[in-house]
Amino acid sequence: xxxxxxxxxxxTVQALTEFxxxxxxxxxxxxxxxxxxxxxxxxxxxxxxxxxxLVALIAYFERDLxxxxxGFKGSFSTPRSQWGHDQRLSWYILAGTLPAMFIGAFLEGxxxxxxxxxxxxxxxxxxxxxxxxxxxxxxxxxxxxxxxTLAGCVFVGFAQAVALIPGVSRSGIAILAxxxxxLRREEAAKFAFLLGGPIMAIAGAKDALAVMHTGLTExxxxxxxxxxxxxxxxxxxxxxxxxxxxxxxxxxxxxYYRFALAGVVIxxxxx
Length: 271
Description:
The protein is mainly α and about 270 residues long. It has one domain. About 80% of the residues lie in helices and about 0% in strands. Helix 1 (about 1-20) packs parallel to helix 11 (about 220-250), helix 3 crosses helix 11 (about 220-250) and helix 5 packs parallel to helix 8.
C-alpha cells in the first residue's frame, strides 16, 4: 500500500511542477530520494508521469487544439495571404517546437549529463527567480496570442529549449519569453502550454519506446497506472487554476519559491 501512496505523491508532484514555473526535474529528484521510491525503474516511471501530464494538457486545451488542427489542415488549401489566426498559429507552434527538438538531439547523452548536476539546478533556480522579479516590473504585458509573429514564436521556442537544463522550468522560461514579447502574463502561460504540447508528445513517445520492453509485474503496472492517472487529473486542475491565478497575480511567489528550493537543494548536497 505504501508504494501506491508514493506513486500518488510523485504523480501529484509531477503535475504541479510541470505546469507551475518551478522546475519539475529538481522536485522529482528530491522527492524520490526522500520517500525512497524504488519499486519501479525511475526513468520508466517518469515517462509514465510525463504522459499523464500530456493527457491533462490535451484534455484541458481540447477545443484550442482541435481548432489548431483544423486550421493546420485548412492551410494547405488556402492561400497564405488569406490564412486566419488558427492557420497561422498552427504553423507558428510547429516552427516553435523545432529549436527544442534540434538542441535536444544535439545535447543528448554525455553533453546533457554535464549539466544534470545539483549545482547547475541551484544556479538556474536562482537566476530564474531573479528574472521573474525583474520581468514583472519591466515587461509591458499588453498583448495576446493573436499578436504573436513567426519570429516571436521561434524566440519562445529557443527559450523553451533552455529548459533542457535542470532547474530552468520549461513553462517558466517560456512564460518569460512571452512576457518579453509583451504578452499578458496569462497569455504567455497559455502559449507556453500549447507550445510545450508537441515537445512533451515527442519526448514521451521517444522515451516510451526506450522502456516499452521493460518487464513489469502486476504490482508495478498498477503503480504506473496510479502515477499516470494522478498526474493527469491533478495536471488538469493545475492548468486551470494557474491560468486563473496569473490573470491577477505576479510571478513573485514563484520566484521566492525557487529561491527556497535552491536552498533545499544546497542543503541536500551538504548533508
